Amino acid sequence: MKRLFLTSLSIVAISLSVSTSAQARGRTEPIATPTTQLSYNIPTPKYVTPFELVGSAYQGQYRAHSIPGFSSLIDGARTGKITAKDLVKAAIESGSLLPEMINDRDYLSNVEFQLKGFRF
User: Fold this and answer.
1) What gap in Å lies between CA 66 and CA 60, rounded to an integer?
2) Residue 32 covered by a domain
3) How far is CA 63 from CA 22, 38, 94, in A?
4) Tens digits of per-residue pLDDT, 17-66?
5) Residue 33 forms part of a structural domain
6) Cα-atom radius of gyration of the chain, to the nearest Å?
7) What percent of the chain has pLDDT over 90?
8) Do the domain assignments include residue 24?
């Protein structure tokens, strides 16, 4: 029994010393800080997921581009007056999407899928 206790105590002590020395090393190289930051006033369109696009449209973000928000968007999606292509065009005009996205069939079908959620 003593032998088992001493063996297990030795294993615990060795494992603690190994893990402590590994944690103590930490970061040794200096952290690089940027010396010059370039800023251009060029808006860069970002990728907006179909879910984010429909959510933004629902919140009225594309009203300036003739896409109504809230219940008017739901009614337009149900009746077919507002299509996925309309939403993508509005997002392109607002600078949220790249113009190439209007020809991306997968993206358009995913936006259409999100709009179908309004049609329950």
Assistant:
1) 10
2) no
3) 57, 33, 10
4) 555 554 555 555 656 555 555 555 555 667 899 999 999 999 999 999 99
5) no
6) 28
7) 57
8) no
Q: How far apart are CA 93 and CA 45, in angstroms?
A: 10
Supply 59's token pair.
């919140």
- Give the C-alpha separation, 72 to 78, whole Å: 10
Task: Please report where in the chains the tokens 């930051």 appear, as a residue.
Answer: 37
Residue-range definition of the domain harbouring residue 95: 50-119
Torsion of CA 61, 110, 48, 96, to 10 degrees: -50
- Count: domains in the chain: 1
Counts of helices then strands in the chain (DSSP H, E): 5, 0
110-117: list long-range contacts, CB under 8 Å, 24+ apart.
110/50, 111/50, 111/53, 111/54, 111/84, 111/87, 112/83, 112/84, 113/50, 114/50, 114/51, 114/53, 114/54, 115/54, 115/77, 115/82, 115/83, 115/84, 115/87, 116/77, 117/54
